Amino acid sequence: MIGQPPAEDLRTVTLSRAEFQALAHDAESWRTLNSSPHVAELLAEWGEWSRRTAMRQASGAVCAALDWRAFARVPTYAELERRRAEPVTPRRCGARDCRMVLSVPWPAPRHDVFCSRHEDDRSAAA
Description:
The chain is mostly helical. It is 60% helix and 8% strand.
């Protein structure tokens, strides 16, 4: 590799006395810190917090991926306003001898409108 010393140089490290003492002091500090019951408790709590945070984010991502289907079926406020702006025209059912009045959005369709009891007549008329 470019910029890497030869392999035999990686085995030998030369430290000054001050660097060695600083490393020994850091190692002793870490050993003392890790042997403390308070630190062990804090680390355990942090591990639990980290796990819950990851689960919350994953759960939120799954919910966000699934919720779009629910929102796709629900009309937006703009769509509801547009629907309410259209006047509703009453029309009678197109079946013979039926007096049911239906609400049909304006402009009313050109074909006959049938109530739910006469849906079969609708398919026969088509």
